[in-house]
Amino acid sequence: MTLILAFIATHMGFLWDQARFRIAGSEVTTYNGGDALLLVESDVVRLRFVRDRGQLLLDFQPATGGISEWFSVDLIRRLMLGQPESSGLLDEGYAAFIGQHLDAIEGRFRPERWAETHAELKALKVKRAKELFG
Q1: Which member of 19, 31, 95, 103 has the greatest number of CB atoms within 10 A?
Q2: CA atoms of 61 and 55, how far apart (whole Å)
Q3: What sign does the CA torsion over 116, 92, 87, 56 have?
Q4: How distant, in Å, are the alpha carbons of 30, 32, 84, 105 from that of 60?
Q5: d(Cα 8, Cα 121) in Å, to the nearest integer?
Q6: Edge to edge, what strands does the sheet with 22-28 contain?
């Protein structure tokens, strides 16, 4: 959990500006050197920070509507910028992207846009799989 919290404090402090996001849940294990999960959400979008085997990952889903599917940060950036990413591991570049595009990202997760966004993200997931595995 320390790695997740340190990353957010160092690179994503903007999440707390004007109490926009709040911590919604967490889990910590001793497996693989201390895997962890931190849920952070606004009224619109939920972010799942994961430390898995020493790597940081970030996934998104709507905060409302009972959606169970998560979408990785590389798919979100591809949706917004239209270009494939070489990695899905959370790094400073992804943090900066989220900081610069947070309003637009939340806009895509609003209930009135979610059906369109969901369809596009699912199509990008299929496209990414074909690119990776043929």
Answers
A1: 95
A2: 20
A3: negative
A4: 25, 24, 17, 10
A5: 25
A6: 22-28, 36-41, 45-52, 55-62, 71-72
Residue in the structure block whose two tokens are 């404090």: 9
Q: Which amino acid type is present at position 35?
A: D
Instruction: Tell me the whole-structure pTM to 2 decimals.
Output: 0.93
CB 81 within 8 A of CB 96: no
Nearest-angstrom CA–CA distance, 57 and 53: 11
pLDDT, tens digit, 9 for 90 and up, residues 28-79: 998 777 799 999 999 999 999 999 988 999 999 999 988 889 999 999 999 9
